[in-house]
Structures are given as C-alpha cells and as structure tokens.
C-alpha cells in the first residue's frame, strides 16, 4: 500500500520524539509498503528541528529517512500552549491543505492517516482521502478537547474548544478506521458518535533493534552520579524522560524529602518545562539524595536503565486518565527489565498487568516514599524476577512489529479491503 501519514509532531532518531510515527512507518516500509510522513518544520517536542543547509526551513522540504519519505512544511517556532502554538498548527494545516493535489499526485495514497494529537488535521486528511479515493484513518493520542478541558480548566464554550469538538466529532463520523493508543475509550467515543466496529486499540511500544547488541556507554556525568550512589551503599532510583507537570516529579521530590538520610539516591535524566523549577527545589531544599542530569541520547537509555535498581514513573491525579494511559517511557522501563514504582490512578495499569513492580496512589509523597522503601528492601533476585516479567510482557504485547501489523490489519478489515 501507499500510506500518507499526517503527524504534525513526527520525529526521527536524529531529531527526537515523537518516535511512534517513525517506528510504525519503518515497520511498514520493511513489510514492503511505501510511507510518506507529512510533518511540521517546528515542534516543541523535538530535540532538534529539520534544517536545510544548517538553517530552519523556509519552504517545504523533502528527505528520505530509513526508507520513509518525510515531507516537511515550515511552521513558526513557539513556546508553551498559547497563541504561538495555535499559529504553528494553522500554518501547517493551511500548507498541507494547499498541497492536496501535489501530495495525491506524488503519493497516490491508499490510506491517509490523521495523527497529530489535536484532531483538526482530520479535515485536511479527509480532503486528501476523498480526492484520492483512499481509506481514512484517525489515530487518537489524547482525547481532545476533553484533555484541555479537564487538565487546563478550559470552558466547553471557549471558541477553540468548540472548534476542536467539531473536529473530533467529524473524525469519529467520517473516518473508516479509528486507532486509539488509550485502551479504555470505548464508552466515551461511542458517546461522541463513533461506531465501535471502527475502533482498534494499538498502544505504544518498543523497537527491538534498539535493544540488540551493546548500548553506548553512559555519558560521564550520569555514570559518575550512579557510581557515587553505589559507593555510598545506596539503592539507585532512576527517572528518564520529560520533566513536565504531567510527570508528577514534584511528588517524587516530596518523597525524596521524606527519604533523606536513607540509603536511596534518585537520579533524574531529562529536560522539559519544569526542569528549572525542579532543579531550584533540589537546591533550595538541600535534597542531597536527588541528582538531576541533562537529557542523554536515546541510544543511551538502555545503559541508564541497566545501571539503576528501581525505575519511577508518576502521574497527576486527574480524571482524564480513566480512559487509560500509554506511556512510552514505561515500555522502555519494562524492556530493560526494571522493577517499577508506578504512581497512578488510571483505567489501566501495565505495571500491575505485567507484575513487574508496585503501584501506589498518585500525588501522594508518603505512598511514593513507602513504595520505594518496599521495593528497595526486596532481595535482588526477587526484583530481578519482577523485571523479567515486565520484559516478557513487552515482548508479547508491545513491540513495533506486532503493533504495526495490528494497525494495518485494522485498515484492511474495514470498508471491504
């Protein structure tokens, strides 16, 4: 098949996240399909932006990455979630809309996928699919507009929210296939008009080749922080990923205050909007049992996870998680064989399903501190067995070859294909 994949935030190994579109597309290319990825030239989640001759994009640009054809459309830079991000979204969608005829002539798509976190790309994808006579797929990352309503307190009557709601309803009505990363969305989507026969769950996962062979050694500062903790006789608790409010790292620091003087050292690796505030807390509160390091290359993540004893992942207590969670970093934790402390209240819990750690309530520093103590007190063999269960769970359910086949199988079983 010829697949046209619209994902505003699509990344690559060289640029950084989002990785899911790249991993799915690479599997489809390996299976003999042709994939064109349509993405914006600026995204806040990428570590680096695509460039031409060392400069930001000033015009649409085409490049091939691991057999995937990327079509980049320039879009203005922004910070945060204000008007700058909205201008960035509209600049991207407007250009792709204008390029409809050219994209159809170049790609001749059999399948058009709308997959940009926000749902307004469904209008562009629908136009492309209808004119090309292609199947239309809507891939759901987060439930918009419910997420900004419940997480940011936006009014349902806000003009932006009303527009997003229209886009979501159109997507559920007009898409031939709906793919959701979140596993507990059936009742909600049905309430918005989706025929559940169209729905398939395809969660996030891992790619096996990143876990084959020897991973690159850890950067010196991270390796030294872990070595110093070991020399002091401490159990090492690791966190690798984004440092934003949804990751509940303030709760982890609150737990660290309770754990001062105990043989537990927290090593955090990553970047994000909350990093400076978190670092200021560590300094101001004298949290000697917390070490914060800049982000490491993705290729070093297996080395980091192999070097720690317990991996932490946390969430805020918010109602939106009743529809389920699909965290990328948790898949890495499990693939690495880490025992996991999971601070969450959600519609699903992969840690409990896999039996690879301990789940405690979110936004509860005392519960997090106690959970870390309990895992640290386990015999090393028991922690290792828990980690092995997590790895087996991922290999059975969450590798990208498996997920990519499931995704295209859904596309092939709808509308008579």
Walk me through the structure.
The chain is built from 16 helices and 16 strands. It is an alpha/beta fold. The chain has 2 domains: 2-205 and 399-412, Rossmann fold, CATH 3.40.50; 209-397, Glycogen Phosphorylase B (Rossmann fold). The protein has an 8-stranded mixed sheet with strand order 5-6-2-1-7-8-9-10, sandwiched between helices. A 6-stranded parallel sheet has the order 13-12-11-14-15-16, with helices on both faces. A hairpin with a 2-residue loop joins strand 5 (61-65) and strand 6. Helix 1 crosses helix 16 (400-412), helix 9 crosses helix 14 (365-377) and helix 12 (328-335) packs across helix 15 (380-397). The longest helix has 18 residues, at 380-397. The protein is globular, with a radius of gyration of 22 Å. The termini are close together. Residues 413-417 have low confidence and may be disordered. InterPro entries: Glyco_trans_4-like_N (IPR028098). It comes from Sphaerotilus microaerophilus.
């Amino acid at each position: 098949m010829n697949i046209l994949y619209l994902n505003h935030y699509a990344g690559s190994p060289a640029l950084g996240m989002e990785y899911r579109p790249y991993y799915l597309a690479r599997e489809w290319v390996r299976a003999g399909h042709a994939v064109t990825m349509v993405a914006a030239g600026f995204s806040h989640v990428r570590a680096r932006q695509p460039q031409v001759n060392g400069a930001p994009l000033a015009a649409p640009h085409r490049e091939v990455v691991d057999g995937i054809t990327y079509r980049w459309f320039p879009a203005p830079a922004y910070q945060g979630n204000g008007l700058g991000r909205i201008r960035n979204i509209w600049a991207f969608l407007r250009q792709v809309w204008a390029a409809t005829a050219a994209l159809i002539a170049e790609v001749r798509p059999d399948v058009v996928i709308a997959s940009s976190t926000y749902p307004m790309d469904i209008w562009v994808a629908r136009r492309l699919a209808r004119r090309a006579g292609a199947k239309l797929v809507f891939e759901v990352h987060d439930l918009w507009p419910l997420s900004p309503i419940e997480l940011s307190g936006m009014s349902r009557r806000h003009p932006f929210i009303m527009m997003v709601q229209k886009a979501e309803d159109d997507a559920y009505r007009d898409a031939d296939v709906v793919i959701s990363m979140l596993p507990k969305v059936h009742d909600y989507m049905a309430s918005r008009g989706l025929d559940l026969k169209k729905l398939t769950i395809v969660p996030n996962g891992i790619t096996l080749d990143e876990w084959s062979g020897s991973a690159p050694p850890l950067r010196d500062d991270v390796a030294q922080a872990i070595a110093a903790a070991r020399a002091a006789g401490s159990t090492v608790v690791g966190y690798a990923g984004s440092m934003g409010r949804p990751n509940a790292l303030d709760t982890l620091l609150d737990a660290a205050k309770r754990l001062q003087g105990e043989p537990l050292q927290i090593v955090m690796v990553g970047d994000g909007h909350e990093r400076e505030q978190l670092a200021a807390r560590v300094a101001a509160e004298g949290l000697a049992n917390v070490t914060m390091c800049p982000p490491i290359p993705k290729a070093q993540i297996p080395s980091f996870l192999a070097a720690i004893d317990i991996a932490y992942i946390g969430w805020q207590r918010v109602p939106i998680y009743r529809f389920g969670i699909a965290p990328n970093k948790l898949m890495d934790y499990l693939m690495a064989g880490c025992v996991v402390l999971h601070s969450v209240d959600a519609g699903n819990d992969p840690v409990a399903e896999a039996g690879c750690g301990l789940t405690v309530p979110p936004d509860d520093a005392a519960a997090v501190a106690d959970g870390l103590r309990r895992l640290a007190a386990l015999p090393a063999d028991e922690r290792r067995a828990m980690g092995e269960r997590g790895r087996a769970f991922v290999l059975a359910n969450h590798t990208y070859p498996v997920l990519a086949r499931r995704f295209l199988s859904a596309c092939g079983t709808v509308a008579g294909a």
